[in-house]
Amino acid sequence: xxxxxxxxxxxxxxxxxxxxxxxxxxxxxxxxxxxxxxxxxxxxxxxxxxxxxxxxxxxxxxxxxxxxxxxxxxxxxxxxxxxxxxxxxxxxxxxxxxxxxxxxxxxxxxxxxxxxxxxxxxxxxxxxxxxxx
Length: 133
Description:
The longest helix is centred in the N-terminal third of the chain and has 45 residues, at 5-49. This protein has 133 residues and is an all-alpha fold. The relative contact order is 0.04. Helix 1 crosses helix 2 (56-70). The protein has helices at residues 5-49, 56-70, 80-100, 107-132. Helix content is 80%, strand content 0%. The protein contains 4 helices and no strands. The protein is flat.
């Protein structure tokens, strides 16, 4: 069996570039959010609560700490393919149950229902509402 080395190196290089770009983007967003936290913290929090003003790096540290504490705990153990398959089977079961319960009956069935029950029920409802006024 012969390996396609060009494919392996291209794929590996692509993954490494994505990881590097993700780290750069994360770092950039963290620094930007740190600036905005400092911008909002310094005029508001010392006046309301009597805390000291913070520096830029303290605000970046605060952003990182809050992200670690409250940043959402994702379930990385599930594979995306498993999740997609679970949703697909759930959707197919839902569609099958809709087919079995005769959802979306024909227009003729609705017309028959309207003439038999719907029109009478609507007229009764309108009379009840008018008498309560």
